[in-house]
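Entry 14. Two folds queued back to back today. First construct below, sequence then structure tokens.
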Amino acid sequence: MNKNDKIDALILLSGNALVRKNLELFKNTDTSDVVRPKSLDRKVQRSINKENRRKEYGSFYVFAKRCAAAVLIVCTVSFAIAMSIPPVRAAFFDSIVKFFEEYLTVAYVREGTAPEVIEEVRDIKPFNEDWEQDIVLNSNNIYTACYYEKGMLVISFQQSVIKKNKVKIDNEDIILEEVKIGEYSASLAFKLEDRTYSLSWSDDVYEYLLETFIPEISKEELIALAETVYQN
């Protein structure tokens, strides 16, 4: 056995010891006070269902993905031709929505007057007095607040500067529609499985993302909640 073989053997043995140690730590950890949100169970089940579909359909799934990619290429070429026409380009360039296999992104074009840092923090004004606010992030570029009711996450709000990074939304089993937040156009995604919403829009100063995590909040309530961002 040479020197490298000995090192490999030591690494393998130490790895097994660490696994056993971590297993005992995991078994002895008290998780009685941990609240697991129902949305986590749904996401895990969705991942399991997706993997089962991959195994069940096998090569057909790969073939379907390739067909979808071919269709996407054709659509992209058609879109590029349409974008060469100035009126069409002007109509579509404000908000660019791209669909990917796992998610879609919404990107906004920054005007010359848009600030490079958050100069004024904005937030929603909850209708429910029982909601508890938790400011998760408050930086120069992003402000994020989560709202809880009895320890359960019900809604989150994000304000950010308009820049190249895009808002990502899971595009599996969703219905996407355009709505209005005051005078501004917004993209509303309804997730069929969770029966929750993702709402994104821009007012040419900042961009916003408002997401629900419980099905009890309706589309109308979410839009009304988004409009409170502009209330003094």
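Second construct, same run, same settings:
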Amino acid sequence: MSTYFIGTGNVGAEPEFKAFPQGNEAPRKMLRLNVRFDNPIPSKEGYQDRGGFWAAVEIWHQDVTNNVKLIH
């Protein structure tokens, strides 16, 4: 099951790149990384961090090449 999510976070470790062969077609590319997302809650003083969460993120296909350049 896939979930669409937009957030800004910090990559926790070196991303893992994989390519899966598909016979005579170009291989399917996948980039796997762990990202920490903060949970800022508005308060009288601005924002207060109420704990965040880690998410395992997988990026597939042509987006992988563009994202590898951005992450390094």
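Quick look at the second one. The helical segments are 63-71. The radius of gyration is 16 Å.
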